[in-house]
């Protein structure tokens, strides 16, 4: 049976309390008590009187933390006294599980059912399953389950078609009911309007949301089909749920959106479509806000989208793409937007894990100069490759907006994007070269008191050494590839930057020659396999070719200065 030891799932429970921080903390304390779970975000809203919490971990640990949090919420939140702008039906209104890595959606569904069963039977809170975990098609949509909200739950829960999946079919007056399921990553997103009219905000929401609005005839009456059911006119965007509301805290109306598939409808397309529909209806979008966390991919794609609209290079660094996305989407209108706190990948990065690439230049140099063999030549060679690609990328970006070259911005943008990809992978290899050395040292430290241990130790050493060959070889391949960038920029790029492209080629050569030395050193004494033979032969070829390419680019750069 799969143990899910290395699997990660995300849990995003929504609690019906957004004003009393003491109550919220009592709930989140239960989450943090569970070892192996990491609390990433707590996002309370006063007007909605609702808090969205995000945490991740091993599936078993996440289920335990979620159960304890839901149980505590049922004890400290009294739904009889709850009011707020957001639809809700319980103290823990909804609790989705989202697969992150090492686990499938089908497996996540099973964990959702385990959690729902515990909540229904052990905590005494009626529980419904939704989305991928739904027990019936008509229960997949959260809005359908929640229809009638807390106030209508007493009459709804006793109907056979709305019997809870777990727990008694009795109205829990204090806690209401909870909806638990498994779903894809959802972006909770509010778009700000320069109006106080909920009616007008709703009009835009109906324009864009997939469900759309009920069709009406010329007299304003709802059109019905042959079965007497209302006919719906679909909205403009797939996988979008939206409503309009007024937020007294900000004094504005917003369109509140749940984006259930950011690949079908990217965040930036959603934002721009709302801008267009608001303009048609005499309003203006002033900004937006993210509730909870957002995937890095959504922000990077938004940054590229808005740069393309400006006909500017998209081959800028990750931090700049994120900055452009924040400003273009107006994510900092209502308050500061900290990427380290709001982007899920950044929150998952362990602050305790020290990486060479995060060091200052001074610290990196001093770390290298110490009495330990790592970081050594492999990491330095990889960083030389990073610098070479960075210089070529810089020339591409400068060329993309050179005066008089406006019709060439896409050409240079493509080169810059290729450069950024080279930079990203070689930055990873700076640290991975040191990690490869540490793997070898760990293998040498294995016990060798008997024949079986000696065999296992020898196999581990060989395996680690092969890995320590593959890492610099990959660096060599990438650095060699960066010659194409340097050459293109020295020939076609901004002539004022020819020297920069030339220096980039010098760095690329240093990276290739340096990693060549690493490959040769680590290959000594290893049995020659077909794979190792290919690596050594290809290394010889690239090492020799690097000399010629660097000299060719260098001479072209010098000729540009005459």
CATH class of the largest domain: Mainly Alpha
Question: Could you list the spans in which at least 5 consecutive residues all have pLDDT below 50?
Answer: none
How many domains make up the 3D coordinates?
A: 3
CATH architecture of the largest domain: Up-down Bundle
Percent helix range: 40-55%
* Largest sheet descriptor: 7 strands, mixed
Q: Rg to the nearest angstrom?
A: 29 Å
Global outline = globular
Distance between the termini: 71 Å
Structural class: alpha+beta
Order of helices and strands: EEHEEHEHEHHEEHEEEEHEHHHHHHHHHH
This entry's quaternary arrangement is: single chain
Topology of helices and strands:
Elements lengths: L7 E4 L2 E2 L5 H12 L4 E9 L4 E8 L1 H18 L15 E10 L3 H17 L5 E5 L10 H5 L6 H4 L21 E5 L4 E7 L4 H11 L4 E2 L17 E2 L6 E8 L4 E8 L7 H14 L4 E7 L4 H14 L8 H12 L9 H4 L1 H5 L12 H8 L8 H24 L8 H36 L6 H42 L5 H26 L6 H30 L3
Parallel strand pairs: 5-7, 6-7
Antiparallel strand pairs: 1-4, 1-5, 2-4, 2-5, 3-4, 8-12, 8-13, 9-10, 11-12
